[in-house]
Design a protein that fits this description.
heterodimer, A: mainly alpha, two-stranded antiparallel ribbon, 2 strands, 3% strand, elongated, B: alpha+beta, Immunoglobulin-like, 3 domains, five-stranded mixed beta sheet, 12 strands, 19% strand
Chain lengths: 119, 318
């Protein structure tokens, strides 16, 4: 696989990777912190569990948003110049996957903000 | 035909007839989800039929990029994004402990409910069984656990289910809004008689509840007539006191339900039969036929007269 194709595939999967990172960190951190009795510990004025969920969500949201912008640009460029069917498919797929990943990351972060930690 | 399913929507054991704050939240969540899902189902079905039966030139707009993006992506994302916080906020607000709540302990056992009222102020502690009596208008916290296997405590009119797990205490909070008799059930399969493990929930005016509580804390009353005294003697001679407690007598068993005021309860057998001398006699003589697997043996060898005396004694324990 060429370097360009590798980049395209990574761009396509990037949103899902960001989602997987958020998913892993918030579940692992919540289980560990709650299991060790840190439900009431605070960091910068907010609960340490909420802080972890919020910061992880914001970082992965930013990553997914950047990937979405990059894939939108690539898709727009592809409309104005002749590209192969594979390139066109990958460009459209990356827009879709990165957009959906952005929403899913947001959905995953919302419960951490609304629900009490370790309840 | 509608009368049959609709009859199940109100009554002593229905989540569609809320009698407490949390149950109302769950009720509205159910209504919103059901109505919303029905409307979307009708819309999608209509579009499907339109796509199948309309002329090609008229249905072409269904296959456009714009329809797919707005109808297939944007619409579900918006709906789910609204439902998620709605459901989460409901989940957060339901079952929140209230200060000054009346504390009650419920322990699930195969196949009945041990209920304890801890001492509160001048009110003494006591135990009862298969019946939860609460005052209206006051927050209630029921701390639940199990003695043997996992059970689940569910009073549909007052809120959602909560697991009763051996070695762990979960808490169920609710406030009864109106007086009445409701029904709770075990909602987790716990053995052969799981389906026959229910309990009554009696919501009383505060003054009535205080009177009930004072009465329940009293020891059992002495038999008033010779027949009942004979029943008490048979109860004693039969060894019933090794499993059951009747406060004020030498019966101090802790294995089975507290029978100190068994006659005051609405039902016997964990919500299975109305409580009267006939059902009590039937229960004593034939429990293993009525509820096979219950821990109590049948006492089928008692004569009819002895059975009447013992059942009469238990029925007199008001």
């Amino acid at each position: 696989m060429t370097g360009r194709r590798t980049g395209q595939v990574l761009l396509t999967l990037g949103g899902m990777i960001a989602w997987a990172v958020q998913f892993t960190i918030i579940y692992a951190a919540t289980s560990t912190l709650c299991g060790r009795g840190w439900a009431d510990a605070t960091l910068l004025g907010i609960g340490v569990v909420q802080f972890t969920i919020l910061s992880t969500t914001l970082v992965t949201l930013a990553a997914a948003a950047i990937l979405l912008v990059v894939s939108l640009r690539a898709e727009r460029q592809g409309r104005h110049q002749p590209v192969s069917a594979t390139d066109s498919f990958l460009c459209q797929t990356s827009v879709l996957i990165n957009g959906l990943s952005l929403i899913v990351i947001l959905w995953h972060g919302i419960p951490g903000i609304i629900l009490p930690a370790c309840a | 035909m509608w009368a049959v399913p609709v009859a199940g929507c109100s009554g002593v054991q229905s989540a569609l007839d809320p009698a407490g704050g949390d149950a109302w939240d769950l009720y509205w969540l159910t209504i919103v989800m059901t109505v919303g899902a029905t409307l979307i189902f009708i819309l999608v079905t209509a579009l499907l039929l339109y796509a199948i039966f309309s002329p090609p030139e008229r249905r072409a707009w269904l296959g456009t990029r714009r329809t797919i993006i707005y109808g297939g992506l944007a619409f579900p994302i918006v709906i789910l994004s609204l439902l998620l916080p709605y459901g989460l906020i409901g989940m957060r607000d339901v079952d929140v402990p209230q200060s000054g709540a009346l504390q009650i302990e419920a322990i699930g056992e195969q196949y009945w409910w041990r209920v304890r009222y801890p001492a509160e102020g001048e009110q003494a502690d006591f135990s009862t069984a298969n019946e939860l009596v609460v005052p209206i208008g006051r927050p209630i916290t029921v701390s639940v656990t199990a003695a043997d296997v996992i059970h689940s405590f569910w009073i549909p009119n007052f809120g959602g289910k909560i697991d009763m797990i051996p070695g762990r205490i979960n808490r169920f909070n609710f406030t009864a809004e109106r007086p009445g008799v409701y029904r709770g059930v075990c909602a987790e399969f716990c053995g052969a008689q799981h389906a026959r493990m229910a309990f009554d929930v009696v919501a009383l005016e505060p003054a009535e509840f205080d009177a009930w509580r004072r009465m329940q804390a009293q020891p059992a009353q002495e038999p008033a007539i010779p027949l009942l005294a004979r029943g008490r003697d048979l109860f004693r001679a039969g060894g019933c006191g090794s499993c059951h407690v009747v406060r004020g007598t030498e019966a101090d068993g802790q294995f089975g339900p507290d029978l100190t005021h068994v006659g005051s309860r609405r039902t016997i057998g964990a919500g299975q039969f109305p409580n009267n001398i006939g059902t009590l006699a039937g229960w004593i003589a034939n429990v293993q036929h009525i509820k096979p697997g219950a821990k109590m043996p049948s006492y089928g060898s008692l004569t009819g007269e002895d059975l009447r005396a013992m059942a009469g004694y238990l029925e007199s324990l008001k």
